[in-house]
């Protein structure tokens, strides 16, 4: 067991600088917006804003695409990050959110669009300040309007393939020092998201709110 510990640093005034993009090469991309966020905080010890993390979202305009000849599955299938959500959330016959989602959420689903929280990454020295939860709240406030469902896949970052990440950023994140106990890490992450009202779809690692 390592005796190395990262001391949480005191921060305030969390800010997220968002940028969104679609590609111009394919019509379907007009309905799937990628949203990147850079998280910064005012750090009392240095009296300046400091980079503390990143967030990435996907906004799927399902309501608009249903008025086109583009298949709804194709909208999800354009990215590997969004494809798994189709079978978990969408009724293949009706092209609408599955009816059991209303039971899980405890409310009627009226709006047609979908917001996917793809990832949120907080640098180790800033963990333990609830910055991640605050960022999630900001994301929902900013982008969940018009969305019948907000979804995320609960998957601890340390079990992703290292080849998919920016090596320099991965080193800063100290991914290799995170717990290798998958079951325990997953349970902890689900509890973390549940504190914001996310609920697990039975039989999956996808959570919805």
Describe this structure in words.
The protein is an alpha+beta fold. It has one domain (11-208). 26% of the residues lie in helices and 28% in strands. It has 7 helices and 7 strands, in the order E-E-E-H-H-H-H-E-H-E-H-H-E-E. Strands 1-2-3-4-5-7-6 form a 7-stranded mixed beta sheet. A hairpin with a 5-residue loop joins strand 6 and strand 7 (206-208). The longest helix has 13 residues, at 131-143. It is globular, with a radius of gyration of 18 Å. The protein starts with 10 loop residues before the first strand and ends with a strand.
Class based on secondary structure composition and strand pairing: alpha+beta
C-alpha Rg, in Å? Answer: 18 Å
As a percent range, the share of helical residues equals 25-40%
Order of helices and strands: EEEHHHHEHEHHEE
Strand content range? 25-35%
Low-confidence stretches: 1-8
Identify the notable features of this structure and list them briefly.
7-stranded mixed beta sheet, 209 residues, alpha+beta, 7 helices, globular
């Amino acid at each position: 067991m390592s005796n190395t510990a990262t001391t949480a640093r005191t921060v305030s005034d969390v800010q997220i600088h968002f940028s969104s993009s679609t590609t111009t090469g394919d019509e379907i991309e007009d309905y799937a917006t990628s949203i990147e966020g850079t998280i910064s905080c005012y750090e009392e010890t240095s009296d300046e804003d400091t980079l503390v993390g990143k967030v990435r979202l996907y906004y799927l305009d399902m309501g608009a695409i249903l008025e086109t000849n583009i298949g709804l599955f194709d909208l999800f299938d354009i990215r590997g990050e969004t494809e798994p959500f189709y079978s978990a959330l969408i009724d293949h016959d009706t092209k609408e959110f599955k009816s059991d989602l209303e039971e899980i959420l405890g409310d009627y689903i009226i709006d047609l669009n979908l917001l996917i929280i793809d990832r949120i990454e907080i640098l180790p020295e800033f963990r333990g300040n609830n910055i991640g939860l605050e960022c999630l709240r900001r994301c929902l406030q900013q982008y969940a309007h018009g969305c019948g469902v907000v979804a995320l896949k609960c998957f601890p970052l340390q079990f992703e393939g290292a080849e998919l990440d920016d090596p320099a950023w991965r080193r800063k994140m100290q991914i290799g020092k995170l717990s290798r106990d998958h079951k325990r890490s997953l349970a902890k992450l689900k509890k973390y998201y549940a504190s914001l009202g996310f609920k697990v779809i039975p039989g999956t690692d996808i959570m919805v709110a």
